[in-house]
Amino acid sequence: GGERIKNILSCPGNYPGIGGADLSLFYSNTLKNKIFMGGSGGCGHENNGFSAVSGAGGGIAFIIGKIIKCNNDSIFSKGLDIPYYCDEDGGSGGGAGGVIVLKTDSVYGKIILNVKGGFGQSVDNSAKNECYGPGGGGGGGVITTSFKKKVINVLYDTTAGNAGITYNSTGSCNNTTNNATNGSKGRVFYNYIYNESPVIFRKFSVTLGNDLTICKGDSVQLNANQGVSFLWRPSYNLSDSTSKNPLAKPDTTTTYIVRAYDSCAYAYDTVKVTVLQPPHILHTPDTSICYGDTLQLYVTGGTSYSWSPPVAISNTFTDSPKVWPSSDSYYVIRSTNGNCAVKDTIRIKVVQAPLVKAGRDTSLCAGDKILIHVSGASRYIWQPNINISDTTSADPEITAVNNITYTVTGYNATGCSGTSKVNIKIHSCEDTTSSAIIIPNVFTPNNDGINDSFEIASKHITDFAILIFNRWGQSVFTSTDPNFKWSGNNAPDGIYYFKLNYTNSDKIAVENKGVVTLIR
């Protein structure tokens, strides 16, 4: 329906009559049994008593028969026009066309099927500078037929109704629709099939069952027992608001309402989903332990607990179990508080002990010194603290006094430890039958004929091997000849490390380490 007048009194704004919509989108062979009566037109804005009653919509006409005989007959299901003017009020809208269903094998004679939309009401502005709004036109209706295509003796009229006109105005709107719109044209559908049922009226209802209770974070399936289409509200936290059985995951207690439809009627029901809060727990953070150690875990905040997997754990139903995993592991804690439960995971990284290597056992002359190198960890402690230069060094110097066993404990960055042992055996070097070696600690390869090479004086030894390397651990010389001589090659001045292995006359394998300084 049209507006009274623009921008006057308490009725400002632009509200022209709107044309009727086309419902033909709801007709197809996949959406069966959808037939609509034509809607009535909208009423015009009225406060002076001049607006007409809106145009009625067309009804539904069924023409069904094996053979239909006619003689220039007409079947009407049209929307009604508003044929006269309206003074000083908004015009009313024309009615929409209805539906004609034609189901037959053949038609003899001529027949006209009319589902036109009605015309909207026009207005008379009484020769004033005013623009009362005319009514919108009614939409054309729908004709469905069992024919596969158009036949020449069956005529169709699906014309849309036009909007009314504003007459007798001194303003710019004169002889225009003043923005009121025409209706949409109707349609004809061929080869239209619909199901017929002897059941005309029936009662339809939908039931959602008892109210539900869940824990926050959980979901629950809502269940409508009947219907072919559904609409749930509110739609948030639903998996599908148009499903028969959507999953609901509300954050707070929520009442859901469903509108169910069964191709005949609508029905409604509600269900309340109460949301309970799960327990808030605190537990051991992710951590690491050394291989072979035991760790005690803890958890608080619940009333009962269970741990999984049940591997390398003292008790799976306590708040403080002890665990001793042999490899990196995840322990899942499930805490309950009434009917609600929460899960969390603790990661335990298992760190292997460092592989500490302190070399082979060594036989020395009393009073000799030897540099022992240990590797495999980041810090060290030597025991006992006897005749050793530094109990925390990776390369301490040992002075041979008595037979002794040194134990070195190495620690990695996480505090895990490993150990190694070195036995130092003393023998008398005055016995010429015993093994003896003399190792210089400096040489000067300057070709002056004095101390130009690094060499070792030895006797009664076998299985000889020496390795010389620089301060970066790079090998610069190696030999298995007890009478070797190293002239330094092109090595720069500096300190060089050596590792010496041999078997003495007592058939003891000896490893000796030390340093030698090269000065040109």
Task: Please tell me about this protein's structure.
The chain is mainly beta. It is 0% helix and 38% strand. The chain has strands at residues 60-69, 73-76, 86-87, 99-108, 111-114, 123-128, 142-145, 154-157, 166-169, 187-189, 212-215, 220-221, 229-233, 247-248, 254-261, 266-276, 282-283, 287-290, 295-296, 299-300, 304-308, 322-323, 329-337, 340-351, 362-365, 369-371, 379-383, 397-399, 404-411, 417-427, 436-438, 442-443, 457-459, 462-469, 475-479, 494-503, 509-518. A five-stranded mixed β-sheet has the order 32-37-36-34-35, with no helix packed on it. A four-stranded parallel β-sheet has the order 1-4-7-10, with no helix packed on it. Strand 29 and strand 30 form a beta hairpin. It is elongated, with a radius of gyration of 52 Å. The termini are far apart.
The outline comes out as elongated
β-sheet strand percentage: 35-45%
- Rounded mean pLDDT is 86
Work out the number of β strands.
37
**Helicity level:** under 10%
The first-to-last residue Cα distance is 114 Å
Poorly predicted runs of 5 or more residues: none
What brief labels describe this structure?
520 residues, mainly beta, five-stranded mixed β-sheet, four-stranded parallel β-sheet, 37 strands, elongated
